Amino acid sequence: MQDVAYGSAPSITPTATASLRLPSGSTLFCDFDGPIADVSDRYYHTYCLALKATQADYARQQIALPIRRLTKAQFWYMKQNRVPDTTIADWSGLSGQQVNDFLSHVPPLVNQPTLLHQDQLQPGVRTALTCLRDRGVRIVIVTLRQAAQVLDFLHQYELATMISQIYGADNIETAYKNRTEHKIAHLREAIIDQNHLGFDTSHSWMVGDTEADVCAGQAFSLPTLALTCGIRSSLYLKGFSPTGVFHDLSAAVKYLIPQEASLHVTN
Ligand SMILES: [Mg+2]
Fold it and tell me: Which domains does the chain have, with CATH numbers?
């Protein structure tokens, strides 16, 4: 909790930092969408399909909508800066009831199996997870995705054996809503469970890409690392005062387990 490192390594010795941050046998609680899976293509294609469906609905009533489809870069910039979906719809040429119609198309589309397959492994994740495993750190995923979806993805990339446990949502639509109270409830369950299983969580960290992850970690006095490779911008995340902000899981792991410390332990 004491360290604040917005993208840069602090000036304490690696061996000391390792024992302070993430010692062998400790547990890292990690979000899934963002830190591990890149969902940006799926979310953008969901937006495009919802626009198209809304346009088709109105075309059947002989009404031509003045659709202006955002580019992926424009769309993702808005999502990262927490622009409401209603405003995104407005910027896309919709107004009034058309906005509600567009929004109603999103939930059933975003979890379609064909779109779920657009999720990709974030760069550097395999190396980061391997480093954590080799260092004796347990990785517990706390996500608002359904655990079965997460497991399918991990099997697809042959990473399932790297993960100790997955705490996911029961409801398929929970992930898109990304409610902080849901994340807090899942993290509470995960911590209680891990303690019952005999694992010490007093040195644990929480890593994620949204305010829900940062607030959940803070709710249980865990130090938190916010990652900007997901659905929130660095500026937005810094507003929640995480312990540190890094680009991705790879950079976060390098901070938690400096290379020299890792070598010191394995030798
Ligand atoms: Mg996330």
Answer: 5-39+119-266 (3.40.50.1000), 41-116 (no CATH)
